[in-house]
Design brief:
single chain; alpha+beta; six-stranded antiparallel barrel; PH_domain; Oligophrenin-1; coiled coil; RhoGAP_dom
């Protein structure tokens, strides 16, 4: 319940009821002042927290932008470029969000704190001053009244008349201070209804506007997120397939036969200890040596550098090499080398007997390599036995009923893959491997397709026919990707290393598996064009060499969107609303994004929100009875909007009236997953009508 009104006429009576009512108003103002202090304190805390959060996110975005991805290999796939640039995209998006946040909260103090402080000082503070004056004048008046009543009637008439004049003067001062105090109480009670609510409304609008911007940026971010997730999944698939190949290569490299094979490759290089003779004695110095057979050049790089001097590599031209007899030196695994640069032979110590034999073989040394006849015979038998097991019996062509229920699909597919991997030369041949890799590494997507199209028709006829048959089957399998999850990208991961492989297995060749997968993916996606049409005879651009640095373009991006333009928000936006100029925007956030299929590089462009329907201006109240009667019939159409309040008119309020605004909680949009429209509007005296709101929902 509200307090009873303070009438100015009660100031002259100064009754106990008047004083009691006045006390109630004073307690209410005291509570209002305390509440304003708490509101201002908490508002400052919120603003400080928002700014601190924004500063932390800006620091996080700077760290993301400074993060660098280094990749192995001479070229990057489009997926790897997306991943390499992802942190820069994240940083740009966060910086854009925080820029908008700082733009909206930097004037939060002007919107919220300063207006509340102004009201507390100018209105409540002035009321307290009026109260002090009222109490002072009241005390003076009643003190003078007591003195006046205690005057003796025997006083002279002139003295009594003078006393009456003094009392009248004090009474006038008391009445004036009382009336001014009551007037100020009415002023502060009325002004706090809008002077306190408007700043909070303005601040709340800024917070909701920021949330609305975040929703829009999230909507813009979704296509980029889905494309990046595809890149991450493809890169993960490439890694899993490459890691298996890499692990197999590592195991093969550990085998003694492979170690011996690698040491036979030119140039021969490794660690050797060299005997160096000095005037005071002899020492063994460790060198990393590399022998070039073509020029018979031995390059020796010292491994133990002296702290004072830095010794460069030593080059020796080889004349001859021979094994050092064991009885002639106390070291094992030694051999001598005669050079053009030195008069005396140079003695080297290898790391093992096998290492010495490899060095001598590379240098055409006099130490021969003998094989046991028994070992040769056993090896020959083993080879013959292995060959007989792999040969196909011509009397048994291998016709098998693949539709029989006895065969499992996985068994048939594994047998097909094993057959293709067991070919002495891959189906797409060694001779075209380098050209196919260069085509897959090209920046130009059209060039990739045209070059692979041309190279596919350069295959031998039997290879091309089998490749066409296989790719046709893979296209059929990929057409059911909704059920079997075998998209062209996933299928390429499986058959890329099967249809293409480098002639020599190295780490660099393992890193090119991802580009082999790209070739197979293009063959599947463009099967009809590649195998149904001959390549065009137009002069193709030269094949670009492998890149040393990553490509400059960005296949997908979000941070390069056109900048948003937002109106400056100030406290003036929430005043002078009688002209009916208000801003509103509608954003549909209920629709979930649809997953995209990878086609070509995309960029995210923000969508412009649809303009809301025009608002209806405030309706002035009819000035006379006749006009009121005419408007009463029209008012029946929308009774909730134009129902006059007779009590407000009787109290002398303004002729402008509005209906009661329903609770915001009742107008909140439905939960996520249902259709609805989020309406963020700047409203003080007007609101969307029911028909207008339905129009927004419909559109």
């Amino acid at each position: 319940m509200g307090h009873p009104p303070l009438e100015f006429s009660d100031c002259y009576l100064d009754s106990p009821d008047f004083r009691e009512t006045l006390k109630c108003y004073e307690l209410e103002l005291e509570r209002t002042g305390k509440s304003l202090k708490e509101l201002i304190k908490d508002g400052n805390s919120v603003i400080t927290a928002i700014r601190g959060y924004s500063v932390a996110l800006q620091k996080f975005s700077q760290t993301l932008s400074m993060f660098q991805f280094d990749f192995i290999g001479d070229s990057l796939t489009d997926d790897e470029i997306n991943i390499a640039e992802s942190f820069h995209e994240f940083a740009g998006l966060l910086q854009e969000v925080e820029h908008d946040r700082m733009m909206l909260v930097q004037n939060a103090s002007d919107l919220l704190i300063k207006p509340l402080e102004k009201f507390r000082k100018e209105q409540i503070g002035v009321t307290k001053e009026k109260k002090k004056k009222f109490e002072k004048e009241s005390e003076k008046y009643y003190s003078q009244l007591d003195k006046h009543l205690n005057l003796s009637a025997k006083k002279k008439e002139s003295q009594l008349q003078e006393a009456d004049e003094v009392l009248d003067k004090e009474r006038v001062n008391f009445y004036e201070s009382s009336v001014e105090y009551v007037y100020q109480i009415h002023q502060v009670q009325d002004r706090k209804k809008f002077d306190v609510v408007e700043p909070v409304l303005a601040f709340l609008h800024s917070v909701l506007t920021l949330n609305n911007l975040t929703v829009e940026m999230t909507r813009d971010f979704m296509p980029y997120k889905q494309e990046l997730q595809l890149s991450l999944q493809n890169t993960r698939n490439h890694y899993e397939s490459t890691s298996e190949e890499m692990e197999e290569l590592m195991k093969r490299m550990k085998q003694p036969s492979q170690i011996s094979k690698m040491h036979n490759l030119l140039p021969m290089e490794g660690y050797l200890y060299c005997q160096e003779k000095w005037a005071l004695g002899m020492t063994w110095v460790k060198y990393y040596c590399k022998y070039h057979k073509e020029g018979r050049l031995m390059v020796m790089v010292p491994c133990e550098q002296k702290p004072t001097t830095k010794q460069g590599p030593t080059q020796l031209t080889l004349k001859s090499c021979f094994r050092r007899k064991t009885e002639s030196i106390d070291k094992r695994f030694c051999f001598d080398v005669e050079t053009n640069e030195r008069n005396m032979p140079v003695t080297f110590q290898a790391l093992s007997e096998g290492d010495r034999k490899m060095w001598m073989e590379a240098m055409d040394g006099k130490e021969p390599i003998y094989h046991s006849p028994i070992h040769k015979q056993a090896e020959s038998k083993s080879v013959n036995r292995s060959s007989q097991s792999e040969d196909v019996d011509p009397t048994n062509p291998g016709d098998v009923d693949l539709h029989s229920s006895d065969w499992d699909i996985k068994t048939i597919t594994s047998a097909l893959k094993f057959y293709l991997r067991s070919l002495s030369e891959p189906l797409m041949t060694y001779s075209l491997h380098r050209d196919l890799m260069c085509a897959a590494k090209s920046d130009n997507l059209d060039f990739r397709l045209s070059e692979i199209h041309s190279l596919a028709h350069k295959l031998p006829e039997k290879n091309r026919e089998m490749l066409e048959m296989l790719i046709k089957h893979l296209v059929n399998v990929c057409s059911h990707s909704d059920e079997n999850r075998m998209t062209p990208s996933n299928m390429a991961v499986i058959f890329g290393p099967t249809l293409l492989r480098a002639k020599e297995e190295t780490v660099a060749a393992m890193l090119d598996i991802k580009f082999q997968n790209i070739v197979v993916e293009i063959l599947i996606e463009d099967y009809k064009k590649i195998f149904s049409n001959m390549p065009e005879d137009s002069t193709a651009p030269p094949v670009p060499p492998p890149r040393i640095t990553p490509r400059k373009r960005q296949p997908i991006t979000i941070s390069k969107r056109p900048p948003r333009v937002y109106p400056t928000l100030s406290h003036d936006n929430f005043q002078n609303t009688e002209n009916g100029q208000e801003a509103s925007s509608t954003v549909d956030v209920s629709a979930s994004p649809v997953p995209l299929q990878r086609t070509k590089p995309v960029s995210c462009i923000p969508q412009v929100p649809r303009e809301p329907p025009p608002r209806l201006a405030l309706m002035p109240r009819p000035s006379n009875r006749q006009e009121r009667h005419e408007d009463s019939e029209a008012g029946k159409v929308d009774d909730t909007r134009q129902r006059p309040d007779s009590s407000s008119a009787a109290n002398g309020e303004s002729g402008v009236y509005v209906s009661r605004v329903p609770s915001f909680q009742g107008r909140r949009p439905p939960p996520k997953g249902t259709s609805g429209v989020y309406v963020a509007e700047n409203v003080i005296l007007t609101r969307l009508s029911a028909s207008e709101f339905k129009y927004v929902q419909k559109n």
